[in-house]
Amino acid sequence: MNKESRSVYLIGQWHGYDSQFFSEISIPGYEVIVFNPLSNFSYYSILKYMPGYIRSSILKNKAKDLILKNPDAIFIFREDRYLLRLMAEICCPASSGVIFRNKVSKSTRMHNIINNLKNKSYNLWSFDKDDCSEYNMIYYEQYIDVYPGIADIKATVDFAFIGRNKGREAQLNLLKKRLEKAGYTVSISILGTKENNVISYFEYLKGICSAKCIIDIVKQGQIGTTLRPLEGALYKRKVITNNKSVSKLDIYNKDNILILNDDLSIDGVDLFMKKKQVFVDKIKLECHDPKFVLNKIISKLDFKRAE
User: Fold this and answer.
1) N or C: which end of the chain has fewer CB within 10 A?
2) CA–CA separation, 61 vs 55, rounded Å?
3) Backbone φ, ψ for residue 79 (5° rounding)
4) For the segment 219-260, what is each residue's pLDDT rounded down to a tens digit?
């Protein structure tokens, strides 16, 4: 690392795509380091069998040691519960903040944790504009970058979804039934079950890009967009979604993205699938570049640079 560079630690149990995007970022004046307390634990194989409170305590101490050894670094935390508790318990460096990668849980406990963090003057970021409004967070654009080896995948089915349940399995099954009845081929893979636990981001992309159209069903109350509309734009796939806020994205084009009604009626799907896809201008994707998004967050946290 250059002696004049400042370390930026991204701490948390990041998804594979987050780690992939962040690890490839190069920002002049900074060394970006992804730190997952779980993967940096030498006894990972036995950690998962420990009681939750012991596991959280061990991971929290791993993060705490890193913070104490690097008082001049910038720390950006994922919203893992044990990390939020750590931030509330100790005095983290002033250059610390939290990126929420999921919609905030409506539990009283989470509400109290967020208020505690706000009282300690931590900066909090969210991709969900409702959460930004309710909790006075800073909005950030969902970020994405090209993943090698995906662009040339050929579509073998009409529609595909891969993701965790998150309370939407019934909606996905209903949509699948309707699409198949209309003569389309549909692949639905719910992760987090014994049959389908975890897959890499590369395998995920291979799966959804094996379809002509990506299915994007968000859980009730979510306003922020998922990565799927961006993945569709990046890898030249159409998208059907029940998230009406997608229409506000710069990349939105009615020939590329079909917004379904709340009842998931497939009226209009036939015409939509027949229309030629309009390729999205690369300029419209620039604000979703991980480097662009992370640099904006760092600029807010690096008080020395701001001065």
Assistant:
1) C
2) 10
3) -80, 30
4) 776 777 899 999 999 999 999 999 999 999 999 999 999 999
